[in-house]
């Protein structure tokens, strides 16, 4: 199993295809062939989970960091991540039944006392 299939298993890929916009069609033809969406999605997941920067993206994904970042931006604008999140929750049977109260983050900051307690 290669890194793309490990980061984007078949089940996730099927769900993603349902929520992702259709790739643009180049009416004039020519140009470079579009990088594989599954490999780009795997690269995005790699950046999100590894903590590396876009520029540190390893070449194993077959797409430049610029392509991966551009696709991430395009998919963000198309609200793909929100749609994907909703579909995953729906398929898990979480139809609005999550208890978000335990996920709250307190925004109050506490200053440390100089010199300790």
UniProtKB/TrEMBL annotation:
This is Transposase. Signal peptide: none annotated. It comes from Streptomyces variegatus. It comes from the Bacteria. Residues 9-85 form the Insertion element IS402-like domain.
